[in-house]
């Protein structure tokens, strides 16, 4: 088939590699001037690092360079993706600086894609037809910024509001009063770097999240706790089977006590009570949206007075007094605000689709209706890769590509349409309830990363061995264990042919 892939992050390049090995003709459209997706140099903010250690944040068939540190910088992740493209000779099929303007179903099947140069918009638009379309533009494609009153006044006074991904250096905050909105990973990452240059650095957090130290008591790497099947099993899945039944027997006493002990150690190690930063709720809430690692130097900066926290509040409006801009908070305080950095999440927009198609892809809640996070229920010749945000996002995206390749080759059958519809509806309802609505429009599978990969590979009829899966209960998941999956799929398809 002639297949278009939108996006050249982990999901896009993995899809290109897998589908090429299955004999398809692939074209990848990437709006940025480089591969990388969220790791592109156009989106990296100061202090950006991975939450995973380098051994777990890879695709299956290329390890991170030994010279890279355990916790990777954004630049190093992007370098890894460049290495991946070079190793598997994907560059000729990737159109960089090319934005997909529209994607429309063609009358006889397939998709008509209209694209143009994204750097200048010059040169007119190009039109291509493809038999199939893979959307790999990612769940973190466009930053979301709240709508505030008084932004025009703030900018007229010389201030600025920008998303964290738009802050590429610290020159614009040097000697300034900076307000950072949010309390997730990006907010804390950028706060540490900004505090080194700014006159004042204040984080405004509507809700505090639980943070996880990279190393418990400075010794035990968090990957030994949460990047294993045992760590995943501490949280009850939609259906509990096998060894997980033991963990959650008797009112979840075993799992609850294990998670509770981590909460106690984390509270003490990060000095959350002393700093007045103990989140509401329990540590198990860490799995509702995403696990956020404590940024190195963040809580130390709070303790030293370099970073201030305004908790359980939000910006009500911006005002200017005597030529100086201030952020007025809902709690009545006013903060000097020369620069406002919003680290408030992302919009999952697909601007190349018409409103009609977007309506067919989502339910009444605006959540994506995707079987296995991949297959739309109501739109043909279309699949999604990487719409299963997980602890192991590169591996999860790669296994999505394997599922797509198998499906296109007739390697596995889909359940009847009513069964898929029921499955998706039940899954979305469970996700909404479990996360209190913070399931990223149905794309966030954290903390059930391996459950998702298992279901995907079970459909395909390929998986790692039972001894490997048993070992994953005690040791962190190693994507390299899945390196044989694509070659085995290629062989399976060839044998069927």
Architecture overview:
It is a single chain. This protein is α/β, with parallel strands linked by helices. The chain folds into two domains: 2-141 and 348-496, FAD/NAD(P)-binding domain, CATH 3.50.50.60; 143-346, 3-Layer(bba) Sandwich (FAD/NAD(P)-binding domain), CATH 3.50.50. The chain contains 16 helices and 26 strands. The strands form nine sheets. Strands 5-2-1-9-26 form a five-stranded parallel beta sheet, covered by helices on one side. A five-stranded parallel beta sheet has the order 11-22-12-13-18. A three-stranded antiparallel beta sheet has the order 6-7-8, with no helix packed on it. Strand 12 (177-181), helix 4 (185-194) and strand 13 form a beta-alpha-beta unit. Helix 12 packs parallel to helix 14. The mean pLDDT is 92.
